[in-house]
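YM 10:42: Iron complex transport system permease protein sequence, as discussed on the call
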Amino acid sequence: MPKNVITGVENNSQPQFCNHNKIWTKPFILAIIVVIMLGIISLFTGVYDIRGQEDGMEMFFITRVPRTVALMLTGAAMAMAGLVMQLTTQNRFVEPTTTGTIEWAGLGLLVVYLFVPAPSLVLRMTGAILFSFIGTMIFFLFLRRVRLRSSLIVPIIGLMLGAVISAISTFMGLFFQMTQIIESWFVGSFAAVQVGRYEYLWIIVIITFLIFIYANRLTLAGLGEDVATNLGVNYNRIILLANGLIAVAVGIVAAVIGNLPFLGLIVPNIVSMFRGDDLRSNLPWVCVIGMSTITLCDIISRTIIMPFEVPVSLILGTVGAVVFITILLRQRKPRRLR
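YM 10:58: structure's back
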């Protein structure tokens, strides 16, 4: 293993610890208030008139409350996955979408359907988690064996790997006549969320707690293998733990919701621009902004062409692509000025 970090990124991608260690500040409280307001708007947004129908309150607790809770948990999960990935690889452009992890999760779902015609949600989650973990480990092993001089190459490699896995999934779907499963999965949407179909998302709370406990070790691992080892951190073990947590978060979201692109890219980069790369102090911010981002996109998806609904992945992908291009341009400017 070379002494430089596994991705060979530029100095502006190195972790920068700052003094923003306080969590309960006025801006953070304001951010929580914004999330609460968006949650209230989400509860009362929809075609069905919950106030004018006799079963309005029943439908409110069957569909609206579960959907809003699922939005909050999913936003936190994907944002945290992106944050941990970016920290451990020291690359701003890494997240489940740009590393092929989400495509591996889709392949896992397809394999489960091949062996079990009508799998339960637990089986689908298990397949998605297992294949997400395998795909993430393959990506990390590739980065450790290949010396890369530019941070821009890393997401390109991840997107290429994801495209290959997506092609395999498409071929298997066509061969076994299961294209409908693939199409429904690639269209990430909260329309089908209701009581009995979202409860496993609460596992994300446990993942958040574990990430917070191991935050300091994950931050040290982000400094590279040599530095982390000299500071007494078992680098391989902490990377394995990080990949496991990422796989669980992505697998659960993939099985319950579907594909949600670029959320793990947008939020961590926004937070890092203002607060540096201290995982412990940034985690609450990442969760809150992730919740607000996906909730806002879902509200837009429900209102933009009412009474119909646009998949939230379409809105999220559009916003994420714009942010991704903006970050790329910001990274290229300093080079031209040198």
